[in-house]
Specification:
This protein has helices at about 35-55, 60-70, 85-100, 105-115, 130-140, 165-170, 175-185, 190-205, 210-220, 230-245, 250-260, 275-285, 290-300, 305-320, 325-330, 350-355, 365-370. It is an all-alpha fold. The longest helix is centred in the N-terminal third of the chain and has 19 residues, at about 35-55. The radius of gyration is 21 Å and the shape is globular. The relative contact order is 0.20.
Length: about 375
């Protein structure tokens, strides 16, 4: 092939087709307004449901999921339970309820020591690499932000626990992003922080909106345009919209489109924040905020399925309220078992939702009060 480009005649501008623009699908508000408390409960319960639904499919490929279960459309475990996603969301939610907008890095670091690092951690099953690296650094005497200097600072460990910040800062995406970045300074850096900010801002917007498009725009508004997180989120959502509008679209074709636009083939780590956040928002947008469809889409795409389904569930729950969650799925969620964080055993996500629900008042009591 010649290295010298061949000059082509300039086409007539009048003959050029107009650029195609992705138009938002009009959203019809629900017949009954969803009150803030219902949205708060929906966001936190949605996170826990998505986590429990996605846990069996974590780290699996879609082909492995289909071979084992067909398409997952409900719990495939006889004893469904949340993972570190739910337990860390409760931990961060209680901390936020205690300090509110006055939350500082010092508060977060102190809580990590008091409730996790300085305790007998037990088996610590299911903990992500970012949490392990953070605890090792804290136990060595390192303080934030140096405690976040480990090999998985870019993980989705902050994104998985970011929903409470959106619930607390309902309608204020920038404030949700600010607060979750404070929480994440102890454990994450760079793209790991951006992933948490996108989720927190998305939930904050969903708490006061009926439009999935508003949620996506809010998430993008708080992360740098040139970040991996922003690019991954945009690719996933664009792929979801194109696939959804195909007359021949199917559940499988939409999942494949979102996944192929987001996942880095052959990359061994499934806990990449940009990837997990992209998959979650892609599933959310493909389903236009419908809870069951979004969570099922996230689960059946595999990879870090408990986290992607937890994030998609939190977004849909905040947008549509607690009633949007199938009753049998909601009923399966009980108090967490402390499998990852023994100090959180016996606590329920709905208790955290009640403490964080917008009520026009200050902090509602958090870790210290919950321990009494």
């Amino acid at each position: 092939m010649s290295a010298t480009p061949r000059t082509a005649p300039e086409p007539d501008p009048a003959a050029r087709p107009a650029p195609r623009r992705l138009r938002a699908v009009p959203e019809q508000p629900p017949p009954v307004a969803v009150v803030p408390r219902d949205r708060a409960r929906g966001a936190m319960l949605g996170l826990a449901v998505g986590d429990a639904l996605g846990a069996p499919a974590e780290n699996l490929k879609p082909s492995q999921i289909r071979e084992r279960w067909g398409r997952i459309v409900g719990f495939v475990s006889d004893d469904p339970a949340g993972t570190d996603d739910t337990e860390y969301a409760i931990f961060s939610g209680l901390l936020l309820a205690e300090h509110g907008s006055e939350l500082t890095v010092e508060h977060v670091e102190s809580a990590w020591h008091e409730w996790i690092a300085d305790r007998d951690e037990g088996p610590f099953r299911g903990a992500g690499f970012s949490e392990r690296g953070t605890l090792e650094n804290l136990r060595r005497g390192l303080a934030a932000p140096i405690s976040a200097q480990h090999r998985h600072a870019w993980s989705d460990g902050l994104a998985m626990r970011a929903a409470p910040f959106g619930v607390f800062a309902a309608g204020r995406p920038a404030e949700a992003a600010r607060l979750v970045a404070i929480d994440g300074t102890v454990s994450h850096d760079g793209e790991g922080i951006y992933g948490g900010q996108a989720v927190a801002a998305g939930v904050a917007a969903a708490m006061v909106s009926h439009s999935p498009d508003v949620v996506v725009l809010a998430a993008l508004s708080v992360v740098p345009d040139d970040s991996w997180t922003a690019r991954s989120l945009q690719r996933a959502v664009t792929a979801a919209r194109r696939a959804r509008r195909d007359p021949a679209a199917s559940e499988l074709s939409i999942e494949r489109a979102v996944r192929s636009a987001t996942v880095i083939g052959g990359y061994p780590w499934t806990d990449l924040a940009p990837e997990a956040v992209g998959l979650a928002f892609g599933a959310f947008d493909a389903a236009r905020g419908d809870f069951a469809r979004a969570v099922e889409t996230a689960v059946n795409m595999g990879r870090d399925a408990d986290t992607t389904a937890a994030v998609a569930g939190a977004l849909c729950g905040a947008l549509r309220g607690e009633a949007a969650i199938p009753a049998d799925w909601a009923a399966a969620i009980g108090p967490v078992r402390g499998s990852c964080l023994p100090s959180m055993a016996g606590r329920h996500v709905l208790d955290v939702a009640e403490r964080l629900a917008p009520a026009g008042v200050g902090p509602q009591g958090g870790l210290a009060e919950a321990a009494r």
